Amino acid sequence: MDFARVLRELTDYFAARELRWAVVGGVAMAAYGLPRTTLDLDFLVEHKDQDAVVTHLESEGYTTLYRSEGYSNHRHADADRGRVDFVYVGGETASRLFAGVRHVRGPGGATVPVPSPEHLAAMKVHAMVSDPARRSQELADLRYLLSLPDIDRAAVREQLLRRGLEEEWNELAREG
Fold it and tell me: Residues 130-150: what's their mean pLDDT?
């Protein structure tokens, strides 16, 4: 996948329509200094823009693999355009997430918005609860995020405890 190309194409679309967006997933983790293999490009956009985003992707040749109220996954037949996934947020969640974005260097040297480490951590906790098979990878990402000097550890702890993941918090706290 040509991450820089896809990022440029989609950010041009977002900008032309004045959509709020951020990069999440593996690319966001890399932007915070944890490079890891990822095969897709993940975005966060407002829920109100879901229909427009999906329609645009399909008009560009992407096939929608899955769509729900909160997520959609799309793949292009051209391997350079690869797979893109979207997380849709609304209301107060969207307001908090977008208010806390940071602008960092992303694929191809482009400046991209990414959620704060605390919001990325909350997304990791949600992913772990939604799919327990992801526990190991999400804990590794949480471990890294908790090592960042300016992260609010109490906010991450609260996210884990609120989701019944006290054992995971204790494991992370023991390590660092």
Answer: 94
